[in-house]
Design brief:
The complex is a heterodimer of chains A (503) and B (81). Chain A has 503 residues and is α/β, with parallel strands linked by helices. Helices cover 30% and strands 26% of the residues of chain A. Chain B has helices at 3-16, 38-52, 63-66, 69-80. The longest helix of chain B is centred in the middle third of the chain and has 15 residues, at 38-52. The chains are: A alpha/beta (503), B mainly alpha (81). Chains A and B meet through helix 9, helix 10 and helix 14 of A and helix 2 of B.
Chain lengths: 503, 81
């Protein structure tokens, strides 16, 4: 019988009531207590009118409360809209508006959230974790839990009901809210649990934000087997993560390329007892082979598992079995359980092994679509197959190798950024007559943003002034790292900018 | 120029994109105020290693040493002592 992810989780809570589910900086919570708090929060949401299908936004860093809120939204039948906590208020407003969220959970209320509420035509219930800053008609999270009276409310959830929405870009004109159903999540998480061989004995230091599909998958896969998730919100100080692995006898660690490059450059692995670390996973872009080699040498007793996926695929599409790491160098592996991968040419026809084309994927994990954006959905999902926008080939043994991106999207660390959004902001500056934004290779982040700028005749403007303007309009991760001044932009005969010449 | 002023200028120019000294207090936490991210911290480490000819050890990469101008200044004094 099909059960929802949340029902599966409740079963785990009953199976491992006294086990630690989540460990945060100042407190930890057992499965039994977590379940109680989720039930209380669910009841609070229900009593205050949240019903099946309602969208509820969450804009905060990882915490125990984040998990309680997320699971309560799912439990009451709502759709959790997980917003990038590094995004600026303008993006938050666009996403809250586009998703039609009726609730917004934040860590601390600031005047900008009241402005967002005032700008909406529909009602928005603001809820804050912290008491300070509370204003008219707002709620404190702890009050929501006080509604508990021993009753339990649980909505009936169908596998195809939407569970979460994750926005992958912030452009006002073309918002892409990846909508994942309960079936999408459960099928993907089950496959991940299988290939990572996760059990209740596993624990992980989670440095990935939950609003990334990778971070959610780390959280949810561990909580669906009775494992323990140890939160480490800031990877600025990588030695703190290593200390936690040692302290808690952690069995797993997951990161993106920059996580591992930072570790390899700044951490002496021999200073820590990492003997319990059974495996590490890497996804979110290509980690150069030289670093994979270094990682293997540094963690001789741990399995290194390279993976590939997309938010549109719930999280995961392929993984490289660790025993193939040295045999299939540079590959992101084979399709995980329940996923099919095809390489197709420009005409949408499947190509032979070794031939490069676009990576297509199908399976129960593929999103139902982009929220309220049929045009983008129809371009991305063709006859049930997800067009990933990634280019690659499959070898004769079925192993996938990626060779780049088809789209112009820039990927900085875990964030996807549309060049057009930054160009739009830069074009607002009076003395800039033309601008093009491109992603250039970066060892640590995969790509960083470069803006190539043409100034108006006689105008004077320096890079710091341009970046300062960007800072007032864009999230920090979208501010160009480099500003290059040129006399003119290279263009085709038809006037289209030759972006490849700017990289 | 003192280390404090050099560090202030570096952070102001590279992360706050201004030369307005009032935009940064010496006790401001880089982390809590969202002034720098993890790659920014790495850049700051590279900057102080190059500028002051020191080596930041793995065990020294902690907020108490690096998370504000005051902490950086104290850390540099300790390293040079």
């Amino acid at each position: 019988m099909d059960i929802s992810f949340i029902d599966h989780f409740y079963r785990v809570c009953n199976q491992y009531p006294d086990k630690q589910a989540i460990v945060d900086v100042d407190r930890s919570i057992s499965y039994s207590d977590l379940k109680t708090e989720i039930e209380n929060c669910t009841l609070g949401l229900h009593k205050r009118g949240v019903k099946k299908g309602d969208r509820v936004s969450i804009y905060m860093d990882n915490s125990i409360e984040f998990v309680i809120i997320l699971y309560s939204i799912m439990s009451v039948g709502g759709v959790a809209v997980m917003l990038n906590s590094a995004a600026n208020f303008s993006d938050v407003e666009n996403w809250v508006k586009h998703s039609g969220s009726s609730w917004l959970f934040v860590k601390k209320l600031q005047e900008e959230f009241f402005a967002i509420r005032d700008n909406l035509t529909s009602d928005l219930q603001l809820v804050s974790l912290e008491v300070s800053g509370i204003g008219l008609d707002t709620l404190v999270f702890s009050d929501l839990l006080k509604e508990a009276n021993g009753d339990v409310y649980k909505e009936n959830i169908a596998p195809d009901d939407a569970a979460v929405i994750i926005y992958t870009s912030g452009t006002t004109g073309d918002p892409k809210g990846v909508t994942l159903t309960h079936k999408n999540l459960l099928s993907n998480y089950k496959a991940i649990v299988r290939y990572l061989e996760l059990t209740s004995n596993d624990s992980i230091v989670c440095v990935l934000p939950f609003y990334y599909s990778y971070g959610s998958s780390v959280l949810n896969t561990h909580l669906m087997v009775g494992g323990t998730v140890i939160l480490e919100n800031n990877f600025m100080y990588p030695s703190l993560s290593m200390q936690k692995i040692e302290k808690y006898g952690v069995t797993g660690f997951s990161g993106v390329p920059s996580t591992f490059i930072l570790l390899l450059k700044k951490v002496n692995f021999n200073d820590y007892d990492l003997s319990t670390l059974r495996y590490v996973t890497q996804a979110g872009g290509a980690l150069p082979v030289t670093y994979i080699d270094q990682l293997q040498q540094a963690l001789v007793n741990s399995k290194i598992i390279i993976m590939y996926g997309q938010t549109e695929a719930s999280a995961r599409l392929t993984y490289l079995p660790p025993e193939k790491l040295t045999k299939k160098i540079g590959s992101v592996g084979i399709a995980i359980d329940g996923v099919s991968i095809q390489i197709r040419n420009e005409n949408g026809m499947s190509v032979d092994p070794g031939e490069t084309g676009e990576v297509y994927a199908s399976g129960e994990n593929i999103m139902s679509g982009y929220w309220e954006n049929n045009e983008a959905t129809e371009k991305t999902i063709v006859n049930g197959w997800l067009k990933t926008g990634d280019l690659g080939y499959v070898d004769k043994d079925g192993y996938l190798y990626l060779e780049g991106r088809k789209s112009e999207m820039i990927k900085v660390g875990g964030n996807r950024i549309a060049p057009g959004e930054i160009e739009e902001v830069l074009s607002e500056i009076d003395n800039i007559s033309e601008v093009a934004v491109v992603g250039i290779s970066d060892e640590l982040l995969g790509q960083i943003i470069k803006a190539v700028v043409v100034l108006s005749d006689g105008a004077e403007l320096n890079a710091m002034q341009i970046k300062a303007y960007c800072k007032s309009k864009l999230a920090t991760y979208k501010i160009p790292k480099y500003i290059e001044f040129v006399d003119s932009l290279p263009k085709t005969a038809s006037g289209k900018i030759k972006r490849f010449k700017l990289v | 120029m003192s280390a404090e002023m050099e560090l202030r200028s570096y952070v102001l120019e590279n992360y706050l994109f201004t030369d307005d000294q009032s935009q940064l207090n010496n006790e401001d936490s880089f982390m809590d105020k969202g002034i720098v991210d993890s790659t920014g911290i790495l850049e700051i480490i590279t900057f102080i290693e190059d500028e002051y000819d020191i080596s930041v050890e793995d065990s020294e990469m902690i907020p108490e040493n690096l998370d504000s101008i005051n902490n950086l200044v104290k850390y540099l004094e300790k390293k040079k002592a």
